[in-house]
Design goal:
The chain has 95 residues and is α+β, with helices and mostly antiparallel strands. The protein has 4 helices and 2 strands. The protein has a two-stranded antiparallel sheet.
Length: 95
């Protein structure tokens, strides 16, 4: 479980990122994501993708990306380790 930020951490967050990262996503968003990862792990993938997706500038003609699957699987190269897989969909249009 992710712990909530302290008041001091929130005070140092002028963009409100802490609030976004710690608030639960709507059920309908998480329900659309397949895979065996927990709800919490799926939410982390969606939220961090949103943080690093540009709204303007390079890549702005890309709609999405939308997380469609989050899974935890055995690493084929090292079977004693697990790995995460995040699958996204996006539409790209010519500008």
């Amino acid at each position: 479980m992710i712990s909530k930020p302290s008041r001091a951490d929130r005070d140092r967050d002028p963009w409100g990122l802490s609030k976004f990262l710690y608030a639960p996503l709507p059920d309908e968003v998480v329900r659309q994501i397949s895979g065996n990862a927990t709800r919490e792990v799926k939410e982390i993938a969606v939220k961090w993708l949103a943080v690093f997706t540009p709204e303007n500038g390079f890549g702005s003609s890309i709609s999405g990306p939308k997380v469609t699957e989050v899974s935890i699987v055995e690493n084929p190269q090292e079977p004693e380790q697990m790995q995460g897989i995040v699958v996204c969909e996006m539409d790209v249009t010519e500008s």
